[in-house]
TrEMBL record:
This is HAD family phosphatase. The keyword Ubl conjugation does not apply. It comes from Lactobacillus kefiranofaciens. Transmembrane segments: none annotated. GO terms for molecular function: hydrolase activity.
């Protein structure tokens, strides 16, 4: 019996698109591409998610790679980018409905602690019964151990869980630890609603 529904964040409850994030920062096309490459497409960005370095440590590395005139933009982006993500309102409405129907809602995301704390400190936190964030655990999906962290921390039975992610590698990993899983895109919200309704 399905009792717990676990959501990834990027491209499931929000549109994670670095190009769209950078559009908030008054950059020339050249500056945009330079910061896209040196921040969001860098190996350090992945290391933030993995908990290997902090956002502050990464910022110092990024600052060393850009012209001095762009350094204030790097600092601004690194401290404010979570607030410049577009969240999918229909998904949050659906999560509210699921909670009213008695389901427990959890988050499981590959992300650094700056975004994790933004979520926990905002009204979004009211939608979730608990979270696991990769940087905090120093584990990233699809490592099966991060799913086990969620299950053990919140005393969940895998056969009572549905995991929703936009990447098939991550949903396959959830299935391998015994969860049901659904590979999601925003245009599949209706399919997800039908899938859960049949449970």
């Amino acid at each position: 019996m399905l009792k717990n529904i676990i959501f990834d964040f990027g491209n499931v409850i929000m549109n994670y698109d670095p190009n769209e994030i950078l559009n908030h920062y008054q950059l020339t096309p050249e500056e945009h591409q330079l910061l896209l490459k040196n921040i969001f497409q860098s190996k350090e960005w992945l290391e933030i998610d993995a908990g290997k370095i902090t956002e502050d440590e990464a910022t110092e590395i990024f600052l060393s790679r850009v012209p001095q005139k762009l350094q204030h933009k790097v600092k601004q982006i690194m401290t404010t980018w979570p607030g410049n993500v577009d969240f999918y309102e229909p998904v949050f409405h659906y999560i509210s409905d699921l909670r009213k129907d008695g389901y427990h809602i959890y988050g499981l995301s590959n992300t650094g602690m700056r975004f994790a704390n933004f979520v926990k400190d905002s009204e979004m936190g009211d939608y979730f019964d608990g979270y696991v964030f990769s940087a905090q655990e120093k584990l990233v999906k699809p490592d099966p151990r991060i799913y086990q962290v969620l299950l053990s921390r919140y005393f969940l039975k895998p056969e009572e869980c549905l995991f929703i992610d936009d990447l098939s590698a991550n949903t396959r990993a959830a299935q391998e630890v015994g969860m049901d899983a659904f590979t999601f895109k925003i245009d599949k919200l209706g399919d997800l609603e039908d899938y859960i309704a049949e449970k």
